[in-house]
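Task 17 of the worksheet. Students: predict the tertiary structure of the chain below and write it out as structure tokens. Keep your answer in the requested format; marks are given for formatting as well as content.
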Amino acid sequence: MKPTQIQSKTVGPGDRFLFARILGCAVLLCFVGSASASAVFDIYVLRKGDGVAVTNDMQAHHIDHFSGSADSVTLTNSWAAPSTDPDTRITQGGDFSTYSQLTRSVDGNYLTFMGRSAEVGGSGGDTDHVVGMFNLRTQTFDTSTRVLASEVDQRGGRGFRSGISTDGNDIWFTGRNQRAWHTTLGSDTATDIARNWQYNRIGIHGGDLFISRRAGTTHGLHRWDGLPTDEPTDEVARFADLGTGWDSDNGQYGDFAFVRDYLFITSTNDGPDDISVYARGDGPDEWNRMTGPGQTLTESIEGMPMFSSAIDRGDHVQLFYSNDGGGDNNALYSVMFDLENEAFGTPIHLADAGEGYGFAGVVAVPEPSTYALLFGLGTLGVVLVIRRRRRPGKPDTV
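Model answer:
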């Protein structure tokens, strides 16, 4: 009878580190759970001014880049938009309460803001409307979209308030000329997609176009089904009034953002300017204002605040905003909204615009978590090791 053969296996380099890789992934899993508490952000802020005084004259734009967290940020870069050459410049009046929203494109690659072709220190007059597009990948400006004032019937207004793009080519914008418009990159014409309402800020959510209203007897937020590019044939059918609880007497609504079943929107009502919270109602277009303790933010706000980012952090929503006072003390803030308790926390002062400057729109972009990245690499390592062990190879040795 043959003696019983005891099988043993040569330990290879991959096997030596298998346990270590699995253990490393387990440890990293623990870190992932707490990563949101120390999340890092890229924060882009539109800044206007000349370093001397913030006035209502036409002023140059800068985009400032801050890197940091909810508690602390550091200015890491700043880009000046063209402001001298009449063929490329973009400027804007210093009225921070209504102008210069900053938005991020749907594909995430572009920042959009509005301006005029007027010279610095002058007035908007009948100069062209300009769409400022900042490419986040190349860190360059494109101001080739210069819509003639006669095309958009400016009606004596100083300029357009808000613009947004899907992909850097298609652009929608609004203005105090009581119109909303669509155009494309590099164009000198635009198509009015909505008429006879005084619109304020514009945004895209869930593939639909949203615009806030700030004048007349009907205030709040309007939604278009999809992203219109043609002239309206039936204005009433084009939009739906969103919700109840809007201040119909004195309300003016500005920047807004959706997170889960909540809508965050800036407003000017019969009291202090604020960031209000609305909860989703029964229907798709029903949003009801929340009026409980801590559900309206007024602290650190002077003038209608400006933001374009409300970021889902799991058990919190994080907002970055400027207090939009329009003066030299204009500042950048962060605040948390506790989803469990449905209340704002205490705003944290992050940065000042500096003397002679003012912050306007804000866009915050979460950076990939380092822990999540390491966890992904570790998981990939385990998968590769398992696949290697299952792959047919040399027979085990005695």
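Marker's comment: The two ends are 19 Å apart (CA to CA). The chain has two domains: 6-39+369-398, 41-368.
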